Description:
208 residues, alpha+beta, NADH Oxidase, five-stranded antiparallel sheet, 5 strands, binds flavin mononucleotide
Amino acid sequence: xxxxxxxxxxxxxxxxxxxxxxxxxxxxxxxxxxxxxxxxxxxxxxxxxxxxxxxxxxxxxxxxxxxxxxxxxxxxxxxxxxxxxxxxxxxxxxxxxxxxxxxxxxxxxxxxxxxxxxxxxxxxxxxxxxxxxxxxxxxxxxxxxxxxxxxxxxxxxxxxxxxxxxxxxxxxxxxxxxxxxxxxxxxxxxxxxxxxxxxxxxxxxxxx
Length: 208
Ligand SMILES: Cc1cc2nc3c(=O)[nH]c(=O)nc-3n(C[C@H](O)[C@H](O)[C@H](O)COP(=O)(O)O)c2cc1C
């Protein structure tokens, strides 16, 4: 697939076909993550790939399996989600947080060796390691799109990351930015519409 085609076709997918994904394809996709720019030249990242359903069930057990209508309404209010497309996205995504990972062909856990406290950075460069792994994650997403697969991600809430790290045996000094689900998108899936952007308003030439 041509590069811009992959960029334009990448979407977050939360419903997958029940289909295995080969080691070869996964290796190709995840290896692209290691081509991303890195703050300290070290590419100090690890990716743990989980295909075994028993391990996935244990790993994901901490994630809420759904949400009541009342809690969903409260979330929309509390998070001040006023845009209708944004609301639609949350109403579609939040109930699927467990399913989108458990029903994926594989769950992928990125890990980075974090030397500074990302929750209390002294300056913006203390977030460089964290920023770098997100560049790496985007490479993975684009590679998945180029291969005809799609990904979703969940940023861990509460103690989800600590729990997940223990299940997969990740070193304590490694930070887990998200859970990733990867698989072949369900047939005839209609993803939530992306928020339209006017490039004319967002791309500035010479000055804002
Ligand atoms: C930093 C970040 C955090 C996100 N957290 C979540 C999440 O916790 N759960 C989820 O389902 N999607 C999450 N997403 C995916 C977004 O919902 C999705 O990218 C957005 O709605 C745009 O849709 P698209 O990826 O299809 O263009 C996250 C994306 C980013 C970049």
